[in-house]
């Protein structure tokens, strides 16, 4: 899976201009999670990330190119306990996976992509309410006063995400990136639409989209993303 590699490189290049703190994954450190989403009322909220007109973005890329060699959390900007007031917010996940077999077994690859997308929206850290807009790729987070008092941090929330991703058998390594610097969030925002277009096109292809480039609405994606057209037309042969 190399379809997202250019976007991963572009993301890391942009982030290379900022300063990060790296925390290695420690399963014991993972913030506890609930089985379902939790509603935190405004009066119980201690902090809002990515709301109040501040930029926010969320995207997830998959690779098999050895770009992620350890399970890690990277934090750019202030951590949760340092934030006072509204702030920009991004959560970006880069997954190093086994070969998903998209060239051979469509059904298996389709299911794997579905499972990864499922995790993206189904981690519910306690006292950390995530509101996502899949249309605009924004993610806003409301954190309860109780969670703040309990010492919630990006390292601990990131570890909860990594733990959940690693339940998917094809996932080898996970990098979770949290960003609260407005400039960086703004610069990375355009990537989300591109990632989304790749994921949508890929799922359509794996779901059996007819190979008719002349009448295909995915053409702009295939024109831009190396390997996408080969992936689809290769299947026809
Ligand atoms: S290869 Fe052609 S038919 Fe397949 S998704 Fe791309 S543009 Fe559409």
If you had to describe this structure to a student in words, what would you say it looks like?
The protein has a single domain (5-189), classed as Bifunctional carbon monoxide dehydrogenase/acetyl-coa synthase(codh/acs), Chain M, domain 3 (2-Layer Sandwich), CATH 3.30.1650. Helices cover 35% and strands 23% of the residues. The protein contains 7 helices and 8 strands. The strands form 2 sheets. Strands 1-4-8-5-3 form a 5-stranded mixed beta sheet, sandwiched between helices. Strands 2-7-6 form a 3-stranded antiparallel beta sheet. The protein is globular. Bound molecules: iron/sulfur cluster. Residues 201, 205, 209, 211-213, 216, 218-219, 222, 228-229, 232-233 line the site of iron/sulfur cluster.
Under CATH, the topology is which?
A: Bifunctional carbon monoxide dehydrogenase/acetyl-coa synthase(codh/acs), Chain M, domain 3
> Which series of helices and strands comes N to C?
HEEEEEHEEHHEHHH
CATH homologous superfamily name?
Bifunctional carbon monoxide dehydrogenase/acetyl-coa synthase(codh/acs), Chain M, domain 3
**Helix content, binned percent:** 25-40%
Distance between the termini: 20 Å
- CATH architecture descriptor: 2-Layer Sandwich
Mean pLDDT: 91
Number of helices: 7
Biggest sheet architecture:
5 strands, mixed
Structural class: alpha/beta
Question: What percent strand?
Answer: 15-25%
Count of separate structural domains: 1
**Number of DSSP-assigned strands:** 8
Q: Tell me, what's the shape?
A: globular
């Amino acid at each position: 899976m190399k379809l997202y590699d250019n976007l991963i490189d572009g993301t890391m290049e942009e982030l290379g201009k900022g300063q990060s703190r790296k925390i290695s994954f420690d399963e014991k450190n993972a913030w506890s999670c609930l089985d379902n989403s939790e509603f935190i009322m405004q009066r119980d909220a201690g902090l809002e990330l990515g709301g109040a007109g501040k930029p926010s973005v969320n995207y997830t890329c998959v690779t098999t190119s050895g770009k992620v060699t350890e399970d890690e959390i990277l934090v750019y900007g202030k951590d949760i306990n340092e934030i006072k007031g509204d702030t920009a917010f991004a959560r970006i996940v880069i997954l190093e996976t086994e070969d998903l077999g998209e060239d051979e077994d469509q059904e298996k690859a389709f299911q794997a992509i579905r499972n990864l997308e499922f995790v993206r929206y189904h981690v519910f850290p306690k006292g950390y309410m995530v509101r996502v807009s899949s249309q605009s790729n924004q993610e806003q987070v409301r954190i309860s006063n109780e969670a703040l008092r309990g010492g919630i941090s990006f390292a601990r929330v990131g570890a909860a995400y990594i733990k959940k991703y690693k339940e998917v058998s094809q996932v080898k390594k996970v990098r979770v990136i949290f960003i609260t610097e407005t400039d960086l969030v703004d610069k990375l925002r355009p990537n989300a639409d591109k990632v989304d277009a790749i994921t949508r096109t890929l799922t359509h292809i794996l779901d059996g989209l007819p190979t008719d480039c002349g009448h295909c609405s995915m053409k702009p994606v295939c024109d831009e993303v190396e390997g996408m057209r080969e992936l689809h037309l290769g299947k026809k042969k």
